[in-house]
Amino acid sequence: MKVVLSALVGALTAVAAAQGDKTVDFNDPANDREVKMTGNFAILEGVGRKGSRAVRWMNGSPKKTPDSMFVTVPVEPGRQYGYELWVRSEGVTNGVATAHFICLDAGGKTIGTLEGRPHVRREVGRKGWQRVTCPSGRMPGNAAFAQLQLGVRAGVTGTLYFDDMRMTEGDRRFVEFNHTSTYRDLAVSGKVRFVVPYILDAKVCTAGDIRPEFVFVGADGKPLTLRPDKVERDFFEAEVDVARLAMGTHPVRAVLKTAAGRELDVAEIAFTRAAEFPKRKVAFDVHNRLLVDGKPFFPIGMYAGKVANLDFAAYRTAAFNCLLGSMTRESLDKVADNGLKAIVGMPTDPAAMRPRLAAVKDHPAVLAWYNGDEVPPGFLPRQVELQRAFRQEDPEHPTFAVLDKPHHVRLFLPTFDVIGMDPYPIGNHRGGIDIASGWVRDGKAGAFGMRPMWHVPQCFDWGWFRPGPRRPEYRFPTADEFRSMAWQPIAAGANGLVWYSYAEMVENFSKEEFARHWAYVKETVDSVAKYAPMMLSVETPISVKGGSAEVPVRVWRYGGENWMLVTNSRREARKVSLAVDGKVGEVKVELGTCRPRVEGSVIGLDLQPLEVSLIRFK
User: Fold this and answer.
1) How far apart are CA 430 and CA 436, in angstroms?
2) Residue pLDDT, tens place only, 465-509
3) Is 397 exposed, middle or buried (0-12, 13-18, 19+ CB in 10 A)?
4) What pLDDT score was predicted for residue 25?
């Protein structure tokens, strides 16, 4: 077995250049110290691809702790790295292995993880040696070293063999993408934000020495150079009045420079100033509301699996207006016949996507394209290409992607039009139920507040997907939990809900179990649908003070009244005082059992655990 660490010879990193090619040959036991191991990993004779020494992991009964193996190498900030390895498995019955990079600073402190494509699933290597490859994301600005780490999760049983591990290097960028705050980078009037994330290598330039700038084509046709309004530690941005820019489509260059004028990198985007908005079947307005044939639309739906097999009569007993799934043109006909819209699952390979898109893109039932589901960072280049293809082939519909890590949103910002988060906290170990709103808040921050959010609440039991002994925490959400996980994200700013998953409920519940749970699923869905017109209002709302991460609050102005949604995201009772502009008139309770107390301009609420309160007042 050989672990090959390809040449780290970037011109700006002397350490890596001095290292050159690094090969750890496991046919020589003296090199075993290059690899650190824990648990059931071992280097053995005769188990490699060609009968050489290789790494074996073997376990006969589920363990409560994971095992790992890693090699540490020097890296450059802003550079993309990759790995490849060969895997063979015997009798692996549950769980997965993972492969990723752990980023370390110069002192050896862990500063983050680049997942790349982390999962080596149990199906891999069953029929013999199989090659697994993936790039990572880019190394962060303070990264000096990285551990290429191979891990086996707790609970996995069977035998895994690993051979010929190799680390490769890709290109290096300090700025790569230039993002705008408008749908499809087009505006008619008003102000537009341009935001550019950047990575800095202190060996190249310090934070105090950078002088970024934006170069536009001005209204007079001449170059218009502007300094950013804001320069933070990892992004810079400028807000520009569209009237200052030339009509038509022109490049906007974001240039990362030093104080001495040295150009480090450039990110460019094509921005359009138009005389009027194009008439599209489906689009987002300046308020991040979805418009369908020009009318506001609040998506309320579920993952439906194969739509051809869907019992539409049962599905439509709840007030859904859309669904998400894989479907043909014939399936879309059924969707339209039932008065619904479709978020259509599409291939993530651009070449495979194009013919599928061409076959259905003109169908009136299409609402959006589902172009990414929990995609790991190593696939960013593919997803960027995929988004370009969707925009070129179909300007009439937006793309919807879902991520399972809020810190990935910024990375994937150029790959979607609307983002969804799927925390799924019940029976999992990602955090408490409050992440139903926390991930929305973090996801919106990752998108710099510039993209609409459709949230994906949990509607399943984790035990349905995890083989092995059933754990006590595996269960379907209760009625209170289900209601909370629907309204929390709305309070945090979501403008659509697509639950996961109707198909799984049908497959895993008995008829009696389905009916019992469907009753309160329907109750929550119907209540969201009832208030959707109010939640689509863009009248200027009153300001409110007193909300928090524990108690998210959102306000609207609708029908001549102020509407306030207050959600207790914790399993303990909470008292909250909310101050608004002006004196509060009569308060009417729309949702919840809490009776508001009003003193002048302050509304007091004693919220029960996970309580949802919706009130309105003059």
Assistant:
1) 11
2) 987 778 889 999 999 999 999 999 999 999 999 999 999 999 999
3) buried
4) 59
Question: Measured between alpha carbons, how far is 111 from 147 in angstroms, rounded to an integer?
Answer: 11
Single out the residue of 57, 63, 64, 26 nearest to residue 41, CA to CA. Answer: 57
- Name the DSSP letter for residue 578: E
SS (H, E, C) 442-501: HHHHHCCCCCCECECCECCCHHHCCCCCCCCCCCCCCHHHHHHHHHHHHHCCCCCEEEEC
Q: What is the largest CA-CA distance in the chain?
A: 82
Q: What tokens appear for 409 in the block?
A: 């949103």
**Structure token pair of residue 294:** 């020009």
Segment (H or E) for 170 = strand 157-172
Q: What residue has token string 């009027």? A: 276
Give dist(CA 136, CA 117) in Å, integer.
7
Omega cis (within 30) before 501: yes
pLDDT, tens digit, for every residue of 25-81? Answer: 567 777 777 789 999 999 999 999 989 999 999 998 887 788 999 888 899 999 998
- CA dist 348 and 353 (Å) reads 7
Residue 590 neighbours by CB under 8 Å, 6+ apart: 531, 563, 614, 615, 616
